[in-house]
């Protein structure tokens, strides 16, 4: 359940715009912003995750992340907003899309 100071849920049009052209990102069935990519090597996958972690720290907002060998999956939602996408997620997404 959202807290008293929970951020506002993102507008669906804003989510669609943010995902347009965002390589390997999509809107998941559960409403989360989801990323999945298979990298050339485990080292490349871990390097990407380190870059994600650095951006997440700057934003003070962290994705759910899974790494398996060469595959990385990310999920962006705001737990304080009832596991829905907020402007926090869209701001982090914009930075993560620039990682390539």
Q: Can you put this structure into words, describing what you see?
A:
The chain is of the alpha+beta class and 100 residues long. The chain has helices at residues 12-19, 42-59, 87-97, and strands at 25-27, 33-38, 64-68, 71-76. The chain has a domain at 33-97: Gyrase A, domain 2 (2-Layer Sandwich). It contains three helices and four strands. Strand 3 (64-68) and strand 4 (71-76) form a beta hairpin. Helix 2 packs across helix 3 (87-97). The chain is globular. The N and C termini lie far apart (34 Å). The mean pLDDT is 92.
Low-confidence blocks of residues: none
CATH class of the domain at 33-97: Alpha Beta
Query: Strand order of the main beta sheet, please?
Result: 1-2-4-3
SSE succession: HEEHEEH
How far the N terminus sits from the C terminus, by CA atoms, comes to 34 Å
Alpha-carbon Rg, integer: 13 Å
Summarize the structure.
It is built from three helices and four strands; from the N terminus they run αββαββα. It is an alpha+beta fold. The protein is globular and about 40 Å long.
Draw up the topology in text.
Elements: H1 12-19, E1 25-27, E2 33-38, H2 42-59, E3 64-68, E4 71-76, H3 87-97
Features:
4 strands; globular; four-stranded antiparallel beta sheet; 3 helices; 100 residues; Gyrase A, domain 2
């Amino acid at each position: 359940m959202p807290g008293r100071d929970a951020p506002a849920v993102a507008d669906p049009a804003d989510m669609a715009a943010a995902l347009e052209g965002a390589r390997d990102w999509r809107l998941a069935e559960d409403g989360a912003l989801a990323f999945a990519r298979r990298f050339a090597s485990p080292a490349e996958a871990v390097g990407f995750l380190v870059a994600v972690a650095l951006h997440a720290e700057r934003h003070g907002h962290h994705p759910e992340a899974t790494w398996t060998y060469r595959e990385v999956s990310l999920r962006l939602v705001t737990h304080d907003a009832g596991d829905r996408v907020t402007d926090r997620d869209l701001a982090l997404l914009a930075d993560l899309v620039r990682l390539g």
